Amino acid sequence: MGAIALDLGExxxxxxxxxxxxxxAVPHGVYQRRSLHEDLDFLANLARELQAEVIVVGxxxxxxxxEGSQAQKVREFSRALAEKSGLPVVFVDERWTTAEVERxxxxxxxxxxxRKEKVDALSAVLILQTWLETQRxxxxxxxxxxRSI
Length: 149
Prior knowledge:
This protein is of the alpha/beta class. 43% of the residues lie in helices and 23% in strands.
């Protein structure tokens, strides 16, 4: 199944997509946010261009698993994106995503603080890979669908 994943930030959106086999998540890049209208247009068009069947969005939950104001903003944006694109949007808990990516970058000898765009794109990869693995296992643990909001 073709999918794209988004790591939504205030200034940037990290983007990942599935590879040709639909098994692995690969980085697609980073989009610099402009305005709500432009952001929705760009991401909906990108999803069509990449022939995505689903959009996976990282949901920034609080450490105790509750949703705060940032998670609410992500949900609102995702609702609008689902409407604009006509595609289902699902959520993946992203609480540890950035920390995992930064740790991996440090282990590889890179300084995450100097590579924020790379962190965003790799966070999207981790979000998508988590969702893909969950789909292969036949469950939805850690994933929440926007269709149920």
